[in-house]
Amino acid sequence: MAGNRRSTGNSKPGMLAMFVLMFVFWVLMSACIKPGHYDYIRIAIGIFCAAVVTLISHDLLLADSETMNLLKTWRLLLYIPWELWQIVLANFDVAYRVLHPKMPIEPCIIEFDTSLRSNFALTTLANSITLTPGTITIDVEPERGRFLVHSIAQKPADALLVDKTMQHKVAHVYMEE
Amino acid sequence: MFSIIDIVATILMVGGLFFMITGAIGLLRLPDFYTRLHATGKCDTLGEVLLILGCMVYQGWSFVSVKLFFLMFFIFMANPVGTHAIMKAAYYTGLKPWKKGEPRM
């Protein structure tokens, strides 16, 4: 991995926590109600798989984890239901445009700056934009928080350029206003 | 007769099928690559999630439901990332977006 980036993934407690997480995940995935399902050989296979996954991907999954704290996690949990509702609206919007006989689309590419800088915040906003009505993120410049977005019509573009509801919500979640 | 669980599961699955079909129609009807990604990237996410939710309701509280939940979670994470990656690749290889009034590609 990149040498200059600070990563918590190499710490021993972090790796142990991830190993336990992976093993629990393996148990959930391989779970079966039959008695006698978990004999020694199965458990050994599970431990082996969890260890291999931990060794290969610990610095991918655990990097940057020090920037999350409880308040941000709580705000993110509050943000998700709103985002889910936006996704449902997005789908009805796309369905309307696709099924309408005249296809009311007017594609354009827009650019805007945000106050976000951290990887988590930028990723959240980029994914949110892609999932919500009529817009898909093309590219992000992390240094300036600049987003390049393809929009299917003028109205969804205005929602990002004029209203900026989503930017404010994400900025509130990650406290980067 | 039908129980409430059957009815709820059926409604969820029919909703999922509606969005999947809409995504397929969008793929055929929309004019260019970028707008087609709008149809597939969004409709497939909700369509798949609704289908899986229907299966979860039908299955009840069991390990299969837990697996289906994880499936749903990963689709939610992976689908926008995949859409974005394809979009970015197309944009930087120089594919011109369709503008209103131009003929279909």
Write up this protein.
The complex is a heterodimer of chains A (177) and B (105). Chain A starts with 11 loop residues before the first helix and ends with a helix. Chain A is built from six helices and three strands, in the order αααβαββαα. Chain A folds into two domains: 12-66, no CATH class; 68-174, no CATH class. In chain A, strands 1-3-2 form a three-stranded antiparallel β-sheet, with helices on one face. Residues 1-9 of chain A have low confidence and may be disordered. Helices cover 58% and strands 11% of the residues of chain A. Chain B has one domain. The mean pLDDT of chain B is 84. Chains A and B meet through α3, α4 and β2 of A and α1, α2 and α3 of B.
Strand proportion of chain B: under 5%
Poorly predicted sequence stretches spanning 5 or more consecutive residues of chain A: 1-9
Shape of chain A: elongated
Number of strands of chain B: 0
Q: Indicate the mean pLDDT of chain B.
A: 84
Tally of DSSP β-strands of chain A: 3
Shape of chain B: elongated
Fraction of residues in H or I helices of chain A? 55-70%
Question: Which class best fits the helix and strand makeup of chain A?
Answer: mainly alpha
Mean pLDDT of chain A: 76
Q: What is the strand content of chain A?
A: 5-15%
Structural class determined from secondary elements of chain B? mainly alpha
Spatial order of strands in the largest sheet of chain A: 1-3-2
